[in-house]
Amino acid sequence: MSALDTELLEHREARPGVVTRVTQILDVFMWGSEFMGLDDITSVTGLPRSTAFRILNQLVELDWLEHSNRGYRLGARTQGMGGRGTDHVDLRSAAAPIINDLHLNTGAVAHLGVLEGGTVHYLDKVGGAAAASVPSRVGGRHPADRTVSGRALLACLVPEDVDTLLGVSSVRHRKEVDLVALHSELDRIRKGRGIAVVPADRCVMGITALAAPVRGPHGVVGTISLAGRDLPPLQAVAPMVTAAARMTAQALFPQHASPMSGRGDGRLRAVTRHATGA
Question: Which structural domain, as residue segments, surrounds residue 247?
Fold first, then answer.
């Protein structure tokens, strides 16, 4: 084999294959905004503009993506696949009345989220008129290390799993995660019975947020969070969020609930009355 043949072979081996390039593009929508432009996609993936444009057009033709004047977004075919076992219907049904009660009794915005890779995927959001004050949306995804819901979920994992998840997501987000600081924060959350808190003075929008994990018989399955500008004192609200997470777990896994679980609704109402002064 000549030197030229060797160089050409090495070039072909180094060039990512079609499946890899398609995956790189689809990953952008898993970790980024709902709508992404061509420049955004080429910036994140590092693919040549012409290559990305050609693949995007093919994905649109096959319904993997949709294209409008707002940019590209996931299409009907990906949404159909997402409905097969990954829509968390049971979790959403179990949590719906509970997070609705949290909102009604506090006036704050309540969320239900799950951990998917290194991100939090928001399954539900209840906030009424207050919803617009909190920058989140149902179906949205955010890096887990940057959100109170994500930290509550990450604190349920062993440190090695946290490193693995965030090591993958940090590459996709083109950012570095300060793992030392994060692990210190996660340790504080574990010692605080799993409650993650971001006080208003640490948020540029002046929003206080806190989250508690929903624990199943085989590990954490989700998180319930509360966010708002005029929350009651944290020492009063934290038990409410913890109780809501516990009640959701009891509704989702009734066969594993304790004999006292039937008192869950009364517990949340009692905690709510104490926090709001009702």
Answer: 89-276
